[in-house]
Structure formats: structure tokens, C-alpha cells
Amino acid sequence: MRTIAFRYFLLVCCFLCLFFARSGAQNNPDSLLPVRGFCIEAPRPSGVDSFVTFINNELAPRKVNTLVLRIDFNYQFKSHPELRDTIALSLQDVKKMVAACSNNHIKIIPQINLLGHQSWANKTYNLLKQYPEFDETPWVKMPEKYAWPNADGLYCKSYCSRHPRVHKIVFALVDEICDAFETDAFHAGMDEVFYIGESGCRRCRKKDKAVLFADEVRRVRDHLALSKRTLWIWGDRMLDATTTGLGIWEASQNHTQAAIDLVPKDIVVCDWHYDRADKTPVYFAMKGFKVVTCPWRNPDVAVQQLNDMVNFRNTATQQLKPLFYGMMQTIWSHNADFLKEFYNKTPDASGQNKTQWACFTKLYDGIQNLGERVK
């Protein structure tokens, strides 16, 4: 009898250990939501210490584990110093942020916009300013006063992905910034590419725009793979604007959407929708991509997107579940401006809280309560 009782006791203990281990795994934030991200412009040198404080006091306690920092030309590049902003981060500035993130188990992913976003409004950015021969649309002149819509269809300039010298330069920047941030991932942007395969470009005309886009994604991905780094991009150019009704910003109206079937499956897609909780993560996951949902300034939409992501993970097949990768709050004001509005709890123009800081706060309140909500 003692032997039988002892065996029964061991069986119960094993069952309880297995139950609590499984329960703990289910409530582990990394298991429930592998990516808990925050995307923001990198600070200027004068704002580094304030941003480090924000990392320590705001991101870390909320269990943010991924920080996408938009760098572009805000770094004192040694490989191409001609591309630096006039005031730019030093290596010492970068290391302060690296140390803060390392201490708080936050993965840093630097971003430099590749392909598109080489200008904004009436300002040409550094790459095309220094190397105008890379311009996909040199015949489109920057206006003194920008307005949309306009006769040229100018939103942002692009570089020509088939120029023979462009990648030697941009890949040098990519390698240098990844080394500085000690990272195994890089965000290439690649959103809202309106100029691609233009008829006036002798290298690109008559080329399939989806192929051109996919080829550029593959070039960047293959280059990063040489250093065992992963490519992250925004997902809008791989969605069909007309079929989905998403429009020209959140999806493609210039025929790049077929690239979704041409690009490598090991890239991470950041799927941004700011006014509705569109169910496009399912589409990306069904195509084989890890997908991260990205809200901006509508707290209610962000909460719905979080609920959707949790539901997708809970109801997906074993193969699809890991592809529903998580959530990432996006910030589109200057770094210092966001910190000011966050700490001052500044309302929007109508006096409401449809703001970046309120969206961030409500999203991460929901993430912090995630374990309770999915039991």
C-alpha cells in the first residue's frame, strides 16, 4: 500500500509541475506576444540622455522588448561622412542607448529608409542631395511649396534600385549602423514607394514594378544574411489597394503588390493600419511571413488590434501561430516632441486623447494585462 501511495503521490506531483509549468509558459509575455515593440525617430545628440531615461523608466517597466530606432542620416557615419546630418549622433551617443537596452533586455533595430522616402515635402534628403544620379525621377523638381495632390504625383522621391553604384553606398551605411548598434536585425523601411519603374528611367522602364520591388527587398535581405542579420520592412507595398479598399498609403496602387509572392519568407513584415483594425496580419501569415501589427494614435484601434493578435495566436494552427509575431507602437513626431507630449499628457487638437502617447499607454496597459485576459 505504501508503494502504491508513494507512486500516486509522485504522479500527482508530476501532474502539478506540468500544469504550473504550462500555465507559466502561457502567461509568459514572450510566449503570449513575442514582439512588444516601440518605433520612434532616434534622438538628436542633445536628447540622448532624456531618451535613455525614457527607456529605463517607461519602456522597460512595460516589458517592451523591441525598439526600432529610425536613424536615416542622424549618425556620424565614417564610411560616408558626406551623408551625415549636420548635427548627428556619435558612436558614444549610440552606445548609451545600446547599454540601456541591453540592461533592460530590449533588442534595438536601427532603420534607414531604403528605396523610398528619399525626400519629404519640398526637402530632398541626403542621399539624393549628394548623389542626384541615383534619383529615380530626376525630371521631377522639388517645389518651393509642397501640396498634395500635385501634377507630378510627388509624395516622396525614390532612388533607382537598378543604378549600378547605389548599393555600394547604402549597404556601407547599413553595415556601419548595424555594427554600431550591435544588432542582428535591420529595418529598411520601404513603405509608401510611389516612384518605382518609372517610364522616364532608362534602367527601369517597362520593368514589372512588383519584380523591381521584390528584387530590391531580396538584395537587402541577402546582404544582411551575409552577417546573419534579419530584414524588417513595412508591409504596405505588398497589399493591393484596390481589392482591399485600403487606399494608396496603406497599400499599393502602383502594382507592387504581387511582390508578396516573390520576396524571401524570412523577412519580418510590419503591418501598419492607423484608423481601422484591418485583418491583414492573417494575409501576411498565410503567405508565410512573421507579421507585427503597428498602431499609431488611436487607442481604441490599438486595443482591437491587440485583441486580434492575441486571438490569431490562440486560434492559429501550430504552423501559423509563431508567424503572428506581436505588436509595435509607432511614433511619427520628433523624438523630443513625443517625450514632451508623453510627460505633459498633451491632448489632441479636439481636446481628446487620440494621441500617440495615449495610444502607447493604452496598448501597453492591455499588454500588461494580457496574461489575465487569455486565461
UniProtKB/TrEMBL annotation:
It holds the Pfam family Glyco_hydro_20. Residues 1-25 form the signal peptide. The keyword Signal applies. GO terms for biological process: carbohydrate metabolic process; glycosaminoglycan metabolic process. The active site is at E192. It catalyses: Hydrolysis of terminal non-reducing N-acetyl-D-hexosamine residues in N-acetyl-beta-D-hexosaminides. It is an enzyme of class 3 (hydrolase). One of its GO terms (molecular function) is beta-N-acetylhexosaminidase activity. Its EC number is 3.2.1.52. InterPro entries: Beta_hexosaminidase_sua/sub, GH, Glyco_hydro_20_cat. One of its GO terms (cellular component) is membrane. Residues 88-333 form the Glycoside hydrolase family 20 catalytic domain. Keywords: Hydrolase, Signal. Belongs to the glycosyl hydrolase 20 family. This is beta-N-acetylhexosaminidase. The lineage of its organism: Bacteria, Pseudomonadati, Bacteroidota, Chitinophagia, Chitinophagales.
